[in-house]
Amino acid sequence: MEHRVIYVLVLVCVLTLSSLAQGQQETCTVAPHHRDNCGAPGITPSQCKDKGCCFDNTVRGVPWCYHPVAVDNPPEEECPF
């Protein structure tokens, strides 16, 4: 019986970690000079968001429509053993 419990715990941990690796999140918080252009000049905020990109027109001289960047999230909880 004890082996089954350990097996189930290991299986749950493996599945949790694999889902975390696949669910990488993105953020629009990018330093203006690191923005990777995602749209043509004159693109509207709604057109930009429809492309899955970020829009921020508060900084002149940099792309206003730009690609989000991946966020590395450390796992919040680790396996108990």
Automatic annotation (TrEMBL):
Disulfide bonds: C28-C54, C38-C53, C48-C65
Database matches in Gene3D superfamilies: Spasmolytic Protein, domain 1
Keyword field contains Signal: yes
Residues covered by the P-type domain: 26-69
Signal sequence interval, chain numbering: 1-23
PROSITE patterns reported for this sequence: P_TREFOIL_2
Keywords of the record: Disulfide bond, Signal
Superkingdom in the source lineage: Eukaryota
PANTHER family: INTESTINAL TREFOIL FACTOR-RELATED, TREFOIL FACTOR 1
Protein name (Swiss-Prot/TrEMBL): Trefoil factor 1
Name of the encoding gene: TFF1
